[in-house]
Write a structure and sequence with these properties.
Layout lengths: L1 H14 L22 H25 L2 H28 L7 H33 L3
Helix pairs in contact: 1-4, 2-3, 3-4
Organism: Sirophysalis trinodis
Keywords: Membrane, Mitochondrion, Signal, Translocase, Transmembrane, Transmembrane helix
InterPro entries: Cyt_c/ubiquinol_Oxase_su3, Cyt_c_oxase_su3_dom, Cyt_c_oxidase-like_su3, Cyt_c_oxidase_su3-like_sf, Cyt_c_oxidase_su3_a-hlx
Length: 135
């Protein structure tokens, strides 16, 4: 429900832009980030990490420790790459959080998602450690 609220704010603002942001979406003066560059690459990385963590899960369930460790390491590598690219996107964004509802929703939604990825990376690191110790 948490992320749903940000998507709701985004869709409401984009489908019915109000007069104080110029009545257009994105708001007047805001240059949107192209979805075909870094966002597409990050999406591919996230989908790939989903595949590698699923592989690790099935390897754990099947008792294949070496494959499970490899799958978890690959997933963590994807997560670190995603986090670095997200940070690069933030630094180079042509707008700020204070630039109307567009900037606010973008940075809040992607920021909390990035935080989610960082917490997941920490948890997966603990899983690797425990799997390595045969827990």
């Amino acid at each position: 429900m948490f992320f749903f609220a940000f998507f709701w704010a985004f869709f409401t603002s984009s489908l019915s832009p109000v007069f104080n942001i110029g009545g257009v979406w994105p708001p007047a003066g805001i240059e949107a980030i192209s979805p075909w560059g870094l966002p597409l690459l990050n999406t591919i990385i996230l989908l790939s990490s989903g595949a590698s963590v699923t592989w690790a899960h099935h390897a754990i369930a099947g008792g294949f420790k070496k494959e499970a460790l490899l799958g978890l390491v690959i997933t963590i590598i994807f997560a670190v790459i995603f986090t670095v690219l997200q940070g690069f996107e933030y630094v180079n964004a042509p707008f700020a959080m204070s630039d109307s509802v567009y900037g606010s929703v973008f940075f809040m939604a992607t920021g909390f998602h990035g935080f989610h990825v960082i917490i997941g990376t920490i948890f997966l690191s603990v899983c690797i450690f425990r799997l390595y110790l045969d827990h």
